[in-house]
Amino acid sequence: MASTSCWFLFFASVWWLPPMLAGAEEQQGEGCSAKRCGNITISDPFWLADQEAARSCGSQDYEVTCHNNRFPGLRSSVPGSSGFAIIDISYEEKSLRVVDRGHLELLQASEGCQGMILNTSVKLAEPFRIDPGNLNLILYNCTEEAAVAAAARRDRELMQTSLRCGNKSKMFVRTGVRYDVTGNYGRYALEGCDAVVTPVLGSSSGQTNASDYEQLINDGFLLSWDPLPLAAPALRIMLV
Ligand SMILES: *[C@@H]1O[C@H](CO)[C@@H](O)[C@H](O)[C@H]1NC(C)=O
Ligand SMILES: *[C@@H]1O[C@H](CO)[C@@H](O)[C@H](O)[C@H]1NC(C)=O
Ligand SMILES: *[C@@H]1O[C@H](CO)[C@@H](O)[C@H](O)[C@H]1NC(C)=O
Ligand SMILES: *[C@@H]1O[C@H](CO)[C@@H](O)[C@H](O)[C@H]1NC(C)=O
Ligand SMILES: *[C@@H]1O[C@H](CO)[C@@H](O)[C@H](O)[C@H]1NC(C)=O
């Protein structure tokens, strides 16, 4: 269902940010002006890497890469893993909507996943927080024996997918799992299955349907960011 072209259309269709504020360029510090990537204005604290100037305009955590001028991306804090595609930024609310590109790649991979799929939370840099209003989706990568056991549970919340992650793996998905501040999802563990947790937007009814997992992953989830802690670096130096 969700192919690469769907993904592109999706980006083109979800645009709803208001027009960029006049004068945003003057508000930029450190000589970095607001820039556009695709349909999104990138301004303080975010900054677009400038290949030619090769200079830094702020904290690396907020560095944004513009992918073919189609969408801005945030890096993963785990080296070598896929980061996040930004769908939308609200500078007033200090929040942004992103899609975990690692999970998107899994949906698009016809040959099954390549390498590890990571929990979304471990890939987020320090200033970013998963909005507690999100629900969670859990992907299970199971051995064949575990898949038989999982299917036998007749758990309505658990759905088998056509996704694969390795030659003999079968993947299941569970949705509607409430956000847990402590990040403990142990009670959703399935024996013989690796679990990967990713946030998804909660619907207005608070219900999600596991059969919509592709759409749910595509729609992304909300993050908020903390303002830069200005005093922190000085404090750290004093303590050393
Ligand atoms: C958003 O970008 C897409 C292509 O990237 C373009 O077709 C569309 O017109 C843009 N929408 C707005 C409101 O700028
Ligand atoms: C998925 O499960 C299969 C079967 O248990 C295993 O061989 C493979 O390494 C797993 N892949 C990931 C990414 O966990
Ligand atoms: C998958 O496993 C089968 C038999 O276990 C083997 O013949 C086949 O080459 C494997 N395919 C890949 C892509 O590893
Ligand atoms: C992802 O999180 C789940 C639940 O907390 C945990 O069981 C699992 O080991 C984690 N997976 C990875 C790859 O870290
Ligand atoms: C989920 O969606 C499927 C297909 O659209 C439907 O058959 C099923 O009844 C839905 N499940 C729930 C709990 O709403």
Brief descriptors of the model:
240 residues; alpha+beta; Alpha-Beta Plaits; 4-stranded antiparallel sheet; 13 strands; elongated; disordered N terminus; WAK_GUB
- Given as residue ranges, the uncertain stretches (5+ residues, pLDDT < 50) are 1-29, 231-240
Element order: H for helix, E for strand: HEEEEEEEHEEHEEEHEH
The CATH topology of the domain at 120-225 is given as: Alpha-Beta Plaits
Q: Tell me what portion of residues adopts beta-strand conformation.
A: 25-35%
Largest sheet, described in full?
7 strands, mixed
User: Biggest sheet: strands side by side, in what order?
Assistant: 3-4-5-6-7-13-8
CATH class of the domain at 120-225: Alpha Beta
| Overall 3D shape | elongated
Query: What is the average of the pLDDT values?
Result: 81
Heterogens: 2-acetamido-2-deoxy-beta-D-glucopyranose
Helix/strand/pairing category: alpha+beta
Give the number of helices: 5
* Amino-to-carboxy terminus distance: 54 Å
Rg, rounded, reads 19 Å
* CATH architecture tag of the domain at 120-225: 2-Layer Sandwich
The percent range for helix content is: 10-25%
Signal peptide: 1-22
Pfam family, one: GUB_WAK_bind
Keywords: Signal
InterPro entries: WAK_GUB (IPR025287)
Word description of this protein:
This protein has 240 residues and is an alpha+beta fold. Among the domains are: 15-74, no CATH class; 120-225, Alpha-Beta Plaits (2-Layer Sandwich). The chain contains five helices and 13 strands. It has helices spanning 4-13, 101-108, 144-152, 213-219, 232-239, and strands at 35-37, 40-42, 47-48, 63-67, 71-74, 84-90, 95-100, 128-130, 135-142, 158-160, 170-178, 193-200, 221-225. It has a seven-stranded mixed beta sheet. A hairpin with a 3-residue loop joins strand 4 and strand 5. The termini are far apart. One 2-acetamido-2-deoxy-beta-D-glucopyranose binds at residues 209, 211.
